[in-house]
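Question (not urgent): is this output format expected?
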Amino acid sequence: MLADSARHFTRCAPGILLAAAVSVLSLVIAHMEERLFGHPVIEGLVVAILLGMAVRSVWDLPEGLDVGVRFTAKQVLEVAVFLLGASVDLPLLLKTGPALAVGIVLLVILGISGSFLIGRALGLPNKLAILVACGNGICGNSAIAAVAPVIHADREHVASSIAFTAILGVVVVVGLPLLIKPLHLSFFQYGVLAGLTVYAVPQVLAAAFPVSVLSGQVGTLVKLVRVLMLGPVVLFFALRHRREAKAGGQPHFSITRFVPWFIIGFLLLAALRSAGALAEAWVADARSLSMWLTVAAMAGLGLGVDVRMVKRVGRPVIATVSASLVVLIVLAVGLIRSLGIR
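Got this back:
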């Protein structure tokens, strides 16, 4: 087993090094911005995504690099999120009580329903509308990949729903902070908004942490609760499409597949920090390492996004994803106001 792990790491190493190089360059750029303007105009996390996308747009990564890039964007990010739990103030993040958790569940249900109806109204096939709705409502590509087998979706539908969702997610990372002043959002409120609307976990980190540490911590917690909705949603569609799944020889649904280890680890470390069981020196080291790994994961995320894919996506998909995002933002702002989150 150790030999297999070593071979896998060796195979991933070139792509990991590429993502690391992009992340270091992005931090250098952010430092230069700080020297020139007194503060980074675009934070290192966002620079890493944009720089990675620029590299991917002019260079088709060979498989030898792509496997390591995917590893950095997923597994390295999971470790970063796990370590992030050591630096969060759990009582502060949970100050709104169970009402926010109920609101997250309600928003996911309304978001998926609204997106599905928009897709159908714009002429998307039923299964493609489901994939787009789940990607928008829960966690982007991960939700699409999880739901696709249980509804027996075509490969073309999976590719179409993933392509533009990934690109629009980056646009949201850059554009969402612009809503802070018009909407008069506090750092806590903005963290909730980011966690409720941004598609993927790494994108939430990139959209929230450059605004403030509190926004990043709140956004991460809200997003992880939202990710946990993937299990019930997949179960719902598995039950609705069970006959078709059996006919296609699909594997049985397992709820344990949708409770990622890093979510449990994040909450465990957060609880230990809140109980005073972690030394401050260890917390500081964990925070620094988490941020470095997050920047590397952002680079991996950017290297995995090919903007040229927009040309291969139909207008109805683009219109559905865009309109669904607007609906999601409106619902999230309404939830923040109705719950009196400050």
